[in-house]
Design goal:
alpha/beta, 16 helices, globular
């Protein structure tokens, strides 16, 4: 049986949340002229994007204009009520669902959020024209089984402005001539004349975009498996995979094995090189500056390795390069006073899901800046947040930490909060990268998902927080993607993250201080692109000298470079200059604590000895009294006989 039943198949593919309900609704309307046997109103109480107000609004003058990079959508919003208020204008896209899609297992939801804008406070009778810019890249889809890259298909694309996802679907249906209460005037049509397989096959970094996650797709191990498809809702409806008890094939068992690649041509890096370069000398320099190699060569082999393996809730100071120690803290609702030491006085904020429900990006930016102020006042440099996995199910144990079921909304808010926090010099670790969309079995759980869903839903918020928000820290998840621990998956951790997205920061694990996390292997992870281990245990991940090979230490040096690059440009360097002496010391209170422990141990030892001696002495006196009493009794008995 597979890994103690710790496997989950994302059988729904891209049809998560409103993407499923709106697509079922549209298909039923187009097939039957009405909702048919799919009763939308009975299944959805409040559509995605739904909101209330103390006033009413009307929309008019919808206009779509093509721009150099995509489209500009303009809508005039008028407050027709009696109270002041704000309105949210949401933009939704519908891609054509083609025969090529059906043949190549590409899925297209009826609508997807591609942008939004919130008006200013409008007084009764006041109007405002808002503009939403939609990049043409929003129309691309990942063709996992065909071209193996992003494509832009030929066909009709609909862009609509709406107050929620269901209104958007009805607007598009009305534009197609269906008899629904949608507003066709709020919909614009764009026709892509030819299928484009080249534009989005190259990332902005120049890297070629290719499929990287075939090993995460359940069809790699089970060719008969079919993901949910709108081409056959009934025939592809998900059931409990293998009845919850999968006798895994040999290919899965092999894929589960930890890999520790060794490069026979690798040379041991230089350590303990004499030099006066300090980390503060590299503040503001490029990641590829040649002086980084000089700085890293001044570190010892021990310091280099321990920097990356002992990074639980903080990292040690490195005296040889003047690098200060850092303090790390949870969590997504603000810097926490709990875990790994407390007594901090920082602000607690609303859960991320509440923040995202406002559609107010400025609030997210301001919250990030406020947590950044707490970073400065509390001396916490690295924040284990924000969290941006997807609300794949309504009852996931971490939904309060995550923004939304929609990747664009999650990404916009994640990027804004990231940029806000880091503007104060703090370092985020956006988490949990990636596919940590439930709590049950997240420790080592194997998540199987096709690459289209992976890229278009689950990876998108992280990409946006890096590319748009400038994140320099990431926390990898406890879970596997397919059979490989996510931190050990080179396709994601290096090829996508660094190759396609151009990421220059570091990746730290989630908790790895216990033997139950031994699948988060440090040698495999370093080779794949994971950099730090959130480990507080003294012996955990302690490799002997023969295991610290040239390959391992080259990877460790790269990891140290990534982390120190982030630290050099953070508020950890506030007050640190060329004259600053950095040392690892034992604080006086720790000496006192050790002395107290020793004193208590000594007192206990000698106290135990004393008690034992007294107890023994008491027993001796009792026995002596008993013997004396016996002798007296015998003497009395003889006297009586006489």
């Amino acid at each position: 049986m597979f890994a103690g039943n710790k496997y989950i198949v994302y059988a729904e593919g891209v049809y998560v949340g409103y993407r499923y309900y709106e697509t079922r609704y549209e298909d039923a309307v187009l097939a039957q002229g009405n909702a048919g046997d799919f009763d939308y109103d009975a299944q959805v109480v409040y559509p995605f994007g739904y909101g209330l107000s103390y006033t009413d609004f009307s929309w008019s003058d919808y206009k779509m204009t093509e721009t150099a990079n995509g489209f500009a959508l303009n809508v005039t919003v008028t407050n027709t009520g009696k109270a002041a208020g704000k309105e949210v204008v949401q933009a939704y896209l519908q891609n054509p669902y083609t025969e090529y899609d059906r043949a190549n297992r590409i899925e297209k939801p009826a609508v997807e959020l591609v942008g939004f804008a919130k008006t200013d406070i409008l007084q009764p009778g006041e109007s405002q024209t808002v503009q939403i810019d939609v990049d043409k890249s929003a129309m691309k889809v990942f063709d996992a089984y065909g071209a193996g890259t992003y494509i832009l298909e030929a066909g009709d694309y609909y862009l609509t402005a709406a107050a929620n996802a269901h209104e958007a679907t009805k607007n598009i249906l009305a534009a197609k001539g269906a008899e629904v209460d949608g507003n066709a005037a709020m919909t614009a049509l764009y026709n892509q004349a030819q299928t484009d397989t080249k534009t989005f096959a190259t990332a902005e970094t120049g890297a070629t975009v290719t499929a990287q996650m075939a090993d995460a797709d359940i069809t790699t191990y089970d060719a008969d498996f079919t993901y949910l498809s709108r081409s056959d809702w009934t025939g592809t409806w998900p059931t409990t995979y293998q009845n919850g008890s999968w006798e895994a094939p040999e290919t899965v068992l092999t894929a589960l094995e930890i890999t520790r690649p060794e490069d026979e041509s690798a040379e041991m890096p230089t350590f303990d090189e004499a030099g006066n370069l300090k980390l503060c000398d590299l503040i503001g320099t490029d990641y590829d500056d040649a002086r980084w190699e000089t700085l890293l060569s001044q570190m010892s082999k021990k310091d280099t390795y321990n920097l990356i393996r002992h990074a639980g809730y903080g990292t040690m100071a490195v005296e040889s390069i003047g690098a200060p120690g850092t303090v790390h803290k949870d969590g997504p609702a603000g810097i926490s006073s709990t875990l790994a030491g407390g007594n901090l006085h920082c602000m607690a904020y609303e859960p991320a899901v509440v923040l995202a429900s406002t559609y107010n990006v400025e609030l997210a930016s301001r919250r990030g800046k406020l947590v950044g102020e707490d970073s400065l006042s509390s001396g916490v440099q690295v924040w284990y947040a924000p969290a941006m996995n997807i609300h794949r199910a309504a009852n996931s144990g971490r939904n309060f930490e995550y923004y939304a079921e929609d990747p664009l909304l999650s990404g916009v808010f994640g990027a804004a909060e990231t940029a806000g926090f880091q503007s104060k010099g703090g370092i985020v670790t956006i988490k949990h990268f990636a596919f940590n969309d439930q709590e049950t079995n997240r420790i080592g759980g194997a998540m199987f998902v096709n690459e289209q869903a992976a890229r278009q839903l689950y990876l998108k918020p992280f990409e946006m927080s890096i590319v748009d928000g400038g994140a320099v820290g990431i926390m990898s998840g406890m879970n596997r993607i397919g059979c490989r621990w996510i931190g050990g998956h080179e396709g994601i951790m290096t090829n996508i993250l660094r190759g396609e997205w151009g990421y220059k920061g570091f990746v730290i694990t989630d908790q790895t201080s216990f033997n139950s996390f031994d699948y988060c292997d440090i040698r495999e992870g370093l080779a794949a692109g994971n950099d730090l281990w959130l480990n507080t245990a003294y012996n955990m991940w302690a490799l002997n000298d023969s295991e610290l090979t040239a390959t391992v230490m080259q990877n460790a040096r790269t990891a140290a470079h990534r982390y120190l690059y982030a630290v050099a440009n953070s508020n950890a360097m506030n007050g640190v200059d060329a004259d600053t002496t950095v040392k690892n010391i034992i604080p006086a209170w720790q000496y006192g604590y050790v002395a107290l422990v020793v004193f208590v141990a000594v007192m206990w030892f000698f106290g135990f000895k004393a008690v034992r001696a007294l107890w023994a002495s008491k027993r001796y006196l009792v026995k002596k009294a008993e013997r004396k009493a016996k002798r007296a009794a015998k003497k009395a008995a003889k006297a009586n006989k006489a």
